[in-house]
Amino acid sequence: MPRFAANLTFLFTEIPFMERFAAARRAGLDAVEFMFPYDFNQEEIKAQLKETGLQLVLCNLPAGNWAGGDRGTAANPERKEEFRKGVAKGIDAARTLGVDRLNCLVGLKNEAFSDGEISETLMENIRYAAESLQKENIRLMVEPVNRLDVPGFALNTCGQVLRLLKEIGHPNAYLQIDVYHARRENENVAAILRDQLDRIGHIQIADCPGRHQPGTGETDFKLLLAEIDRVGYDGFVSMEYIPAPDTQSSLAWLSSHGYSL
Fold first, then answer.
1. What DSSP element (H or E) covers 191?
2. Ramachandran assignment for 41, one of left (phi > 0), alpha (psi -120 to 50 degrees), beta (any other)
3. Mean pLDDT in runs of 10 for the chain (261 residues)?
4. Torsional class of 255: left (φ above 0), alpha (ψ -120 to 50), beta (otherwise)
5. How far is residue 93's CA from residue 44's CA, in Å, rounded to a whole number?
6. Which pTM does this prediction carry?
7. How far apart are CA 99 and CA 209, in angstroms?
8. Domains in the chain, please, with CATH?
9. Cβ atoms of residues 231 and 203 within 8 Å
10. Residue numbers annotated as active site
11. Residue 245: DSSP 8-state
12. How far apart are CA 115 and CA 117, in angstroms?
C-alpha cells in the first residue's frame, strides 16, 4: 500500500495553518508536506511536528515573490544570485524542520532571453542546487508544471525534466511527478513509473480535470496506485488536491479505492 501524506497548503485549509498538523494527525495521517516554510515561524512548525509525531516529507525551495506572480527563479538568467541565496535558505529550513527532500519550481521563462540561455541557466542552477543539497543529505526534486494552468512555465512535462536531468548528470537531482500536471499534458504516468523509477523522487496526486481528490475526474487511480506499488516505489504519495466539498469529506476517496489511514 502506498504511504500517503497530506499537503497542508491544499488540505485542511478550513483552519489556520498551524492547526492543520493536528488535524492531519486526527485524520489518521503520519506524514505531511507543504509548499513554503519561509513565511511562518519555523520553530513553531518544528514544535507542531514534534507534538503530533508527523513526518515532514517535503517542502519547496524559495520561489521568488509568489503573491506577485513568481513561480520560481531557477530559469531566469537575471536571478542566479537570488536562486543561490534561496538554496541556502532552503537548506537552513530543512535543517530546522528535519526534511530530506526539497522541491524546485523552476519558474516562468523570461522572454528577454533565448531558449538556449534559459536552458543553460537551468542546467547551471539545478546542478548547483543538487550539489549543495547533497552535502546536507537532502534530495533535490524538480517539478514540471503544465502549460495550461501556468502559461510560460519553463518545464511543463516529466519528459522535459527527465531530459534536463540526463543532461546534468547529477545523482542528487530527481523528478517530482505531480499526476495532475502530467495528465494535463497527456503524459503516460504508468509508463514513466515503469521506465524511470530510479529518477523519481516524489509523487503527488490530484484528479484531472478539476484538481480535486481521486475519483472526481478521469484518472484511473485504482490502476495507477496499484502500479506505484507494483514497480516498487518506496517514497510517499502526497495528496496535493483541492478538496471538494471539504477536506474531511474528501478523504473518503481512500476507502472507496480500498485504502485506509
1. helix 189-196
2. beta
3. 97 98 98 97 98 98 97 98 98 98 98 97 98 98 98 98 98 98 98 97 98 98 97 97 98 96 89
4. alpha
5. 12
6. 0.97
7. 31
8. 3-256 (3.20.20.150)
9. no
10. 143, 240
11. S
12. 6
